[in-house]
Design a protein that fits this description.
Layout (H helix, E strand, L loop, with lengths): L1 H33 L4 H21 L4 H16 L1 H18 L7 H19 L9 H16 L4 H18 L14 H4 L5 H20 L3
Helix pairs in contact: 1-2, 1-3, 1-9, 2-3, 3-4, 4-5, 5-6, 6-7, 6-9, 7-9
The structure holds adenosine-5'-diphosphate and magnesium ion (2 copies).
Length: 217
Amino acid sequence: ESAAAGPIAQAVIAAIRDMIERDADELGRLDAIAGDGDHGIGMQRGTRAAAAAADLAVAGGAGTGTVLIRAGDAWADKAGGTSGALWGAALRAAGERIGDERAPSASDVSDAVTAACASIKSYGKAEVGDKTMVDALVPFAETLVSQVTAGESLSAAWTVAASEATRAADATTDMLPRMGRARPHMEKSLGTPDPGAISLARAMTVAGHVLAITTKN
Ligand code: ADP
Ligand code: MG
Ligand code: MG
């Protein structure tokens, strides 16, 4: 059964890569306002490597957990920068939680997203309100858990959670940064959303589009 879910993880990662190919310039411009301008290129390097690693893992018959772990390790290795290390740690934590043994249920997936969120918070030490990707990821994870617990399908729950992440990422526009490279440029950052929060919300949105066409429960 795990062999059926590995390709879904692969398709999700490919969709995130494709979104980044489209939006890299915009993400770089956002990061240039209060950061160092490399968020688009870093995400491009990371997602290209992650998608290639996922392709290789699936070709070798790997299950979901292994696909996510290999993709995360490649992402962290090739992206450079803070967000690449954090995305890598998140995919690894999700993969370790999901494992390869069986087709993951909706609650397995929401548990894995919760583990990914905890990993990013523990590794990066950012909390909600610091104006980072955590501001989009925490509401995403919390909404996913509550929707799944309420009995929604994974795809339906993911769609609601992704729109919460989008709302939360947009809301970072009015926040002052307390972490990362944007911190010394607080005033410049005000009025611009956090690039890592925006890319995370867009990644979850395109992941939801894949789940909508590939999952039944
Ligand atoms: P770098 O900051 O190393 O140039 P990127 O430009 O790729 O890396 O990523 C910047 C994004 O990383 C920020 O917009 C923010 O969302 C996220 N980020 C930075 N520091 C942290 C942290 N300590 N915890 C969580 N996210 C962080
Ligand atoms: Mg940067
Ligand atoms: Mg950088």
